[in-house]
Amino acid sequence: MTFNRRQILAAAAALACCAGVGAAHAAGAYPSKPIMVIVSYPPGGETDAIARLFADKLGERLKSTVIVENKGGAGGTVGNAYVGRAAPDGYTLLFTPNPFTTAPMVLGLAPAQSYDVLNGFEPVIETATQPLVLVANPKTGFKSIKDMIDAVRAGKTVSYASPGAGSPMHVIAEWLNREAKVSIQHVPYRGVGPSVTDVVAGHVDTAWVTLGPVTQYFAAGRLVPLAIGDAKRSPLTPKVPTLVEAGYKDIVVGAWNGFFAPKGTPAEVVKLLNTHLNAILKDAEVVEKLATYGAFPHGGAPSELADANAREYEVVGGIIQSLGIKAQ
């Protein structure tokens, strides 16, 4: 049987139409199997708890199973890189805090061992922000940043805890050291929890942490809040001044978290996830739960997460490089 050119073109058009219908059907069927959310840290921490909160709510809205899997190691880069290499089909997502952006710098990883921070993922949504707070053990006698800086300049040895080398807490503390021309000694821990425990016990003088784990100690007088790392005061601690107010106008470092998908994930899948997660962030139960971690809902378009990631890379990454901050 022979076909003329018109018949061949008509057949091609029919096949293209069928393919389009098939693709539309496939996209419309998402999700058709469980979704895996990778958390690049061990279970039990704030990041893990917040990820599970979102996973439960997302599963309810999608009427599908959303599973959180922990892939810790190397400052979060193991799990981050795993998602960067995953199939871009919407069934593997990354939930991460902002060390996602700077961990490869801190660890000094070669590109082959790491991931493309700025271009290797599809941003889905910036879910929440968390202000950083500097707290002191009351035995130090510090009531303000000025008290602490004056004590160091007078020759007193002062230490600060952070949840790890290269964390936002480490960066803001070393930035303050540089701007104030002092040397407050760094004591790195593996996570916020242990650092809080030791500053409450008086084993370390001060600590930079997120608000959630420490507000319970303020009213009891077991910790004294000295400063907030955001540009503005936190509604959770409105009486605590910022570093900007204390005269360090350039020092602004906070914490954020969000969802990324592998590069090439279909735009309609990213849009669907973004829409559902924006709705989840308006859920009163979610807002209340986030507040217990000192976190505030953010939301918005994927571009807002892309912008936050780019700013983190430029500003915080620049400070890391200029100060020579490396994993210890």
TrEMBL record:
Keywords of this entry: Receptor, Signal
Signal peptide: 1-26
UniProt-listed PROSITE patterns: PROKAR_LIPOPROTEIN, TAT
InterPro entries xref list: BUG, Bug_dom1, TAT_signal
Protein's UniProt keywords contain Membrane: no
A Pfam family matched in the record: TctC
Family designation: Belongs to the UPF0065 (bug) family.
UniProt-recorded name of the protein: Tripartite tricarboxylate transporter family receptor
